[in-house]
Specification:
Oligomer: single chain
Shape: globular
Number of domains: 1
Strand content: 25-35%
Radius of gyration: 16 Å
Order of helices and strands: EHHEEEHEEEEHE
Number of strands: 9
Structural class: alpha+beta
Number of helices: 4
Distance between the termini: 37 Å
Low-confidence stretches: none
CATH class: Alpha Beta
Length: 174
């Protein structure tokens, strides 16, 4: 049985290892460490199986819109599951639990760069359909949004911006 819960201090090294294993590099783990140091508004969940961290998902603050209408929401990513346990529903459980928690927090939206075959099952759609563009060059089908509170996004279009840590920077909006 897999248990999904909030990250705890003792999970940090295992979270790093799961991300390195899943992505085959340390870049995502380094971003997570930087976000943890610089950002107080995170939702970090772990999947626990047999008392070990086997999956992790992170949501960090994102900004959507321009000029007169800017809305704060969250960005999903990275998400990682230990390679030997992938395709067993752990990632889906992490996404579903995170979305439920963000709804409870009255978060208006979640953006992500991800697999266009995986995330629509959770309600994500192409952000370009709503006139929302990613701050980075990305395939249109990979940049998605899940609207959790439609009235908050009424009339909001333009650029979606991630935390500066995703670009290797440590200063920016807080």
């Amino acid at each position: 049985m897999t248990v999904i819960r909030q990250e705890q201090q003792q999970d940090i090294e295992e979270i790093r290892q799961v991300n390195v294993q899943a992505f085959g590099q340390s870049e995502e783990a380094d971003i997570i460490d930087a976000l943890r140091r610089n950002c107080s508004d995170l939702l970090s969940l772990v999947a626990i199986k047999e008392e070990q961290v086997v999956g992790h998902i992170l949501f960090s603050r994102a900004i959507l819109g321009e000029h007169n209408k800017v809305v704060n929401g969250m960005a999903l990513g990275p998400m990682a599951v230990r390679p030997d346990l992938q395709r067993q529903g752990i990632g889906s459980e992490l996404v579903q639990t995170g979305i439920k928690e963000l709804k409870n927090r009255r978060c208006p939206f979640v953006i992500l760069l991800g697999h266009s075959q995986f995330y629509p099952r959770f309600g994500f759609e192409s952000a370009s359909r709503r006139g929302i563009l990613c701050e980075w060059e990305a395939p249109e089908e990979a940049f998605m949004i899940l609207v959790l509170n439609e009235p908050d996004l009424h009339g909001v279009t333009g650029l979606a911006r991630y935390r500066p840590e995703f670009k290797g920077e440590t200063s920016g909006y807080e």
